[in-house]
Amino acid sequence: MIALERKRTERSGQPVLLMLVDAGNFLRADMSGRALSKFLSALSLSTRDTDVTGWYKENSVVGVMFTDIGVDDRGAILAIMMNRVSQILRNNLAVENFNQIGISMHLFPEDWYQQTSPGDPVLYPDLVHRDQKRRTALVIKRLMDIVGSAIALVLLAPVFLLVALLVKLSSKGPVLFKQERLGQFGKPFTFLKFRSMYENNDPHIHREFMKRVINGNHDGEEDSQAQKYYKMTNDPRITRVGRLLRKTSLDELPQFFNVLRGEMSLVGPRPPLAYECQEYDIWHRRRVFEVKPGLTGLWQVNGRSRIRFDDMVRLDLQYVRTWSLWLDVLILIKTPGAIMFGGDAF
Q1: CATH number of domain containing 6
Q2: pLDDT computed for residue 117 by the predictor
């Protein structure tokens, strides 16, 4: 039901509030069921017929979803509901029972108007259940990540040294470019690349460009063959060596360290910047929440820069829906060809 309400909110934009009432301490000691009956009766006084009530955690935590909330101020929503529910429970339960209750409020969609906005896992119990059901496959996926990234780091060590030398000799600045990106559930991590831009450049250029792309206000840039690209093809911040690194995707090699550390996977959606997520529509956010980001994915082997942002997100969500170890293997097999012959990296 929580998953269903999230999908409704994605379509309507109307927020939904999940309230969790943890009464486990005294409910577990209630052999007769009287305390549970009284507790649920008191809770029903604070809910409407259209609200959804059920166990979030069996015989311990009750969840209530308040739908059709029309208040714009999120802080006001939480304060009003917390005060109302607390007062009703206080008036209808014994003091010793009320003192054992814990109440938490979780509003969907989460507020993404901060520089970094990690998601609230409480709102995604279906994803936890999904991953528990395929735990063995996920363990194998993680082993593939560890072995694959370790082998790549060893075999490509000479390439690492050569690229590092080219970057160092071509322009001032560090060899590695470190940037905060958002992983699964919006958890920030340090993203690694070989530096392909001049030092101390202005990120405002990219921020404004991505704002237009995400909001569908960028019609694409045409090349000499009239193919449209939805990525900056003439970024003035990029060095001459940087253009070569980006064209061959060699700038991405340090991300094998991110994979080895468990912040990324070999296959998955690309990790976004926080300011990009601030422009996301609600349904776009699923590409961040539902799976760990990756080095390559369906987007990279199906058009990459030639695909509009909304279609890129659809490919990421298709990957989430149809994920299997075999799909990861197929994407990994297709990736070298996409890099060498795709012609859409900038």
Answers
A1: 3.30.70.270
A2: 59
Which of 55, 61, 69 minimizes the C-alpha distance to 22? Answer: 61
Q: What is the pTM of this model?
A: 0.84
Q: At what angle do helices 34-44 and 74-92 cross, to 10 degrees?
A: 140
In which domain, by residue range, is 50 found? Answer: 2-109
Do 87 and 135 fall within a single domain? Answer: no
* One domain, residues 18 and 142: no
Both 66 and 34 in a single domain? yes
Residue 34 lies in a domain: yes
Task: Please check whether residues 82 and 135 belong to one and the same domain.
Answer: no
Q: Residue by residue, what is the 3-state secondary structure of the chain?
A: CHHHHHHHHHHHCCCEEEEEEECHHHHCCCCCCHHHHHHHHHHHCCCCCCCEEEEEECCCEEEEEECCCCCCCHHHHHHHHHHHHHHHHHHHCCHHHHCCCEEEEEEECCCCCCCCCCCCHHHCHHHHHHHHHCHHHHHHHHHHHHHHHHHHHHHCHHHHHHHHHHHHHHCCCCCEEEEEEECHHHCEEEEEEECCECCCCCCHHHHHHHHHHHCCCCCCEECCCCCEECCCCCCCCECHHHHHHHHHCHHHCCHHHHHHCCCCEEECCCCCCHHHHCCCCHHHHHHHHCCCCEEECCCCCCCHHHCCHHHHHHHHHHHHHHCCHHHHHHHHHHHHHHHHHCCCCC
pLDDT at 176: 94
Q: How many domains does the chain have?
A: 2
- The β-bridge relationship of strands 294-296 and 265-267 is parallel
**What separation in angstroms does the CA of 247 have from each of 116, 222, 338?**
30, 17, 11
Please indicate, yes or no, if residue 346 is contained in any of the structural domains: no
pLDDT at position 181 over 60: yes
What would the pLDDT profile of 293-308 be if each residue is shown by its tens digit?
999 999 888 877 778 8
